[in-house]
Automatic annotation (TrEMBL):
PROSITE patterns: CBM1_1, CBM1_2
Signal peptide: 1-20
Name of the protein: Feruloyl esterase C
Organism: Chaetomidium leptoderma
Enzyme superclass (EC): hydrolase
Chain intervals with Gly residues compositional bias: 271-284
E.C. number: 3.1.1.73
Similarity field: Belongs to the faeC family.
Keyword Transcription regulation assigned: no
PANTHER family with a match to the protein in the record: FERULOYL ESTERASE C, PTHR38050
Length: 339
């Protein structure tokens, strides 16, 4: 005979697991750190960063941060995963994969296969929400984020592509995934026209109505955001006046990119639909605010931040020094950057 409270609890548990908790829920977790795996016969590495208070019964969000050309997984982790970690609280597991030859050429799809193997590990060993996988990156890392959206729309709910281009291929690309593009009008490495090309591709896939998307002129310290009306998944475009940088300064010098990326990911979950393999819409939104308890407790103690990485600001728990050739400049109370 089942008592009413027991039944109620059982029903509640059933409702909570309807969304998309992975097979790894309830298992004791592996630790954060640098990991290796063999992919197509090659040794590959990635950094896994669990939340400070990892809870094996909670389905976590997952964010992949792909590094730039000549950068590495260490740079991405040292920079707080494009500064998203400080916005994530304990909601999110971060992954920084390491490219071959410090890039994401994705020859024969080998970097997609690498990503697949990490995704499989995450689902099997950790408690993740299968409807909340995201990817972001700057430059080559943005290009790889675009590529995973093309090839794995059933895995990734949304991507944020910062100064990306078609450098890592796009195998597929016909299934909607929410797409945020951020690009500088003064980008002299991957011109903004290359970023528009990716945006336009997703506008088509996501069923968006085209409209005028104004951008600041090159050199202007400003940013302009265009949110398209789309029938299948969101597309947002933010043009700024800066160059080829991962964390541009916009209106009033504001470092808008991390917050815009985080908000975009949250909105994609709230909207449900295209991208990721769960309903998603029923999930509890993750915290979007920085709380006192959410700072990284184990930043790489000996690594200084890379160029353009964060090196200080209220609540910053990461490296306070900068790689050689750069120095720590205060942008505002909340943000200092290696320049
Ligand atoms: C872990 O997560 C579960 C499910 O969200 C929750 O019920 C539980 O209270 C959490 N435990 C702790 C210690 O926060």
């Amino acid at each position: 005979m089942i008592s009413i409270p027991t039944l109620a609890l059982a029903l509640l548990a059933a409702v909570q697991t309807v969304e998309s908790a992975s097979a790894g829920c309830g298992k004791s977790p592996q630790s954060s750190g640098t990991k290796s795996m063999t992919v197509n016969g090659k040794q590959r590495q990635y950094i896994l960063q669990l939340p400070n208070n990892y809870n094996s019964s909670k389905a976590h969000r997952v964010v992949f941060g792909y590094h730039w050309r000549d950068g590495s997984m260490n740079d991405v982790a040292g920079g707080g995963f494009y500064s998203l970690r400080s916005l994530a609280g304990d909601s999110t597991i971060f992954v920084a994969p390491n490219g071959l030859n410090a890039g994401w050429a994705n020859n024969g799809g080998e970097d997609i296969t690498f990503t697949d193997q990490i995704v499989a590990m995450l689902k099997n060993d950790l408690c993740v929400d299968e409807g909340q996988f995201f990817a972001t990156g700057w430059s080559y890392g943005g290009s790889m984020s675009h590529s995973v959206a093309c090839s794995r729309p059933d895995v990734f709910k949304a991507v944020s592509v910062i100064a990306g281009a078609l450098l890592s291929g796009c195998s597929g690309g016909n299934t909607p995934v929410a797409y945020l593009g951020i690009h500088g009008a003064a980008d002299n490495v991957l011109p903004i026209s290359m970023g528009r090309q990716l945006r336009d591709k997703w506008m088509q896939t996501n069923g968006c109505t085209s409209k005028n998307a104004p951008e600041p002129s090159a050199g202007q310290q400003a940013h302009m955001k265009t949110t398209y009306t789309c029938s299948k998944a969101a597309v947002t475009w933010i043009g700024h006046g800066g160059g080829h940088v991962p964390d541009p300064s916009g209106n009033n010098g504001q470092k808008f990119a991390p917050g815009e990326t985080w908000d975009f990911f949250n909105a994609a979950v709230a909207a449900g639909g295209g991208g990721g393999n769960s309903g998603g819409g029923g999930g509890t939104p993750n915290p979007t605010t920085t709380s006192q308890g959410s700072q990284p407790s184990n930043p790489p103690a000996t690594n200084c931040s890379p160029r353009y990485g964060q090196c200080g600001g209220n609540g910053w728990g990461g490296a306070k020094c900068c790689e050689s050739g750069t120095s720590c400049k205060v942008s505002n109370d909340w943000y200092s950057q290696c320049l």
